[in-house]
Queue: 4 jobs
Job 1
Amino acid sequence: KTIKYKDYLINIMRIISGTHKGRKINPGNKLNLRPTTDRSKEALFNILENRYFFNNKNVLDLFSGTGNISLEFASRGTEEVIAVDNNFASVDFIGNISDTFGLNISVFQSDCIKYINNCKNIFNFIFADPPYDYENYQEIPQLIIKNKLLKKDGLLIIEHDKNTVFNYEKVELRKYGTVHFSIFSL
């Protein structure tokens, strides 16, 4: 939801479910980001909750921006969430919100491709939400496969616009308005 206050546009996000259900988060204008909409986030998490229990699961949130997805996973009881973004303001914001809410989110400032190449952990869920004009979308699943970052039965979810297409055998495309999710089971 976007509200106008004086001459500023302010994106208000909310945590949809879990221990912090209904909590509103206001990143303000200093981040200047495009958070995943509540409608598409709710649809995505409905899919995930019908397939998985979140306890004892870990998550890597790449291009984490406002931390919208990290906060949702953490609120729903995942064991560990790692949020990675190259923007210091984003990392600072996510860290502060995580501390305020008492959530289990570790935040790292890093280029996401470098992080993937140096990561030694394996994850149940990897979520990536690069800017829609990002030029290396195809590189993300390739590097995750190459570096074996997903656990057996894990999912890679990439948020993108309608212009990005992935040609993989095991990819499910979900569309919610202008938001598209490609869900890979590698």
Job 2
Amino acid sequence: MTTVKDYSFSQRLQTFGTALPNKTKSFRLKKSDLLAPVELNKQVKKGDIIAKLKTENIIAPFDGVLGERGLSDDVLVSESSIILTLDDSSIILSDIKVPETYAPLMKKGLPIEATFSGQENKIYSGKIDSVASRINADTRSLLVRIKIINDNFELIPGSLLEVSIKYNERNSLGVPDTAVMLEGKKAYAYKVLEGNFVKKTEIETGIRNKGNLEIVSGLKKGDKIVAEGLGKTRPGEKIKPIINEN
């Protein structure tokens, strides 16, 4: 037996985006100008020397990770030059396309959750940072930028993110989905009355969220209902309740 109570419900829009660093800068150097090898894949601080050249030193304009981008499209150039990249990935951004149907619902500050294949069991929380002012007439979509604080630098720029935008968040009455049975297009719950007798009660449900179903009508806060084993329950019978508030 469980009790009808308030739960947090929200609707979700699932989409994909590419992880982008908060800041990025590239430096093209001639290998012949280098006075010392460049240390790659290391964290540097703003003001650090990232490359010592014959003519000048290249200074990091912001904190970030130093890497190298190849020039595979031009072998001769790649043999004589390198392109260093400095990425600040302490914050990860991603620009995603939202179908125009959802455009009126997109607001700055809406919470998002993201996952990527490099950390399959971890969810990264963030928010919508900005929303475009117009819909793209070619794609019929709205460009939305999301922002995720990347505390442990686990999200890598260039990664494919699976993004879930949460909208229309609200607190509503709800029950575990195991407490609801469907018969055709109608939904029912077994309400526990005085004396532990049960009454089959028609209800109207809303959205499902994390194993709970929103109750639109048919039950009120505090009502006690049968939480599971509905197939063995019969209207009007007396039950021996076991309280389950999970």
Job 3
Amino acid sequence: VHCVAYCIYSFELVLDAFKREMDADAEKEVAGTLTWYNDKCYEFQMGHELVFDTVTGLLEYEKVDEFARVVKIASVNVAEDNTIMFRVATEDEEGKIVPLTSNQLLNFKNYIDAVKFAGTKSEIISTDADEVKYDIKVYYNPANPVDTVREAVLASLEEFKTSQRFGGVIYSHKMLEAVTTVTGVVTAKMLSLSRKGTEDADFIPIDTMAYLYAGYFNYAGNSRLEMVSICLLYTSDAADER
């Protein structure tokens, strides 16, 4: 009975996973959705000409050239007036995320005008990254060298920054998860988090989430990462109880 029940349960899990994959593929296949537009941003090839595909009825490139795909970060949102907002960026020779050059931006605008639906309003933004300033207190296991844990946390935060692929949104809880998943970290607390775009005069506090004006971000130089041994936390709690 247990074996049969487990087999049925496992089969249902497989069906659920299959349904999620099919739904995701179907969403990508439907032209005009935000996911479709987002994928189209990454498919842009600098210096290549679009051709009409008689099978799909869409404008596409004859061949895929990964070296010509200059868009490395893209986010697509719909503004209140139903304008589709494209926020895109590329990488420089050192691997840093930077805005598109004027020539790349002009070609990308022409590309979007060609592939988007007729009558669709769009706006393309490619500007300097937003700045995100954080103040995080990290409680670590003293069995791990503090310098090693700090470097691992910073590396995880950097990976979190570059993994923001779609939506142009930063979530405070996801950023904290990137810290707490590091080996040696017991727990962490977000003391403060704020962002500043090119149009903002000062940093704006982030409560749970915030939209990025540029669609991507860099960390501010005055961000703070405090490392605290978990033993000190236990000692402080014991003192409070006394």
Job 4
Amino acid sequence: TVQPNIKSPSQYINYVEGYIQTHLPSLNSQDRIFCVFDVDTLSDSEIEKAQKRLELHKTLRSHMQFVHSNPDFEVWLLLHYRYLQGKLGSQEAITKLREFEKEYTKPNVGDIFENLLRNEHRALENANQLRQYHQDNESNLFSTRTNPYTNVDEIVLFINSIRE
């Protein structure tokens, strides 16, 4: 669990460094740390700084992965219902999600979790298709310009792989 005042991926790295020192003195090769954040208010320089810092970190680089959504987490939720490609403004993914889930209130996914689970396969396919679209256009996935985008599917695939 992370404190809500952490606003950037670099701050997550600081938090994880401290947490590891006090709670997880040794990580094994199977351990994974997912740093999940929204791009909405970040700059490209903040994202690049964190990415470079993670790549150079001797301990974390093999255990930690940035998982982000641009502009926000609701892109992942919306992909459960439809593929999307055009740039989304702030709060737009929430508005579009409510076309399918009228009762959705951020950040409460509990009320719609069963529907999300039922549509997980579609979300995985749509996220992969969206990633491929950006890669085909030679977009930097860790950029504010890659909108909409999410790689939350990578966590889901990881969890599914260890559940089997």
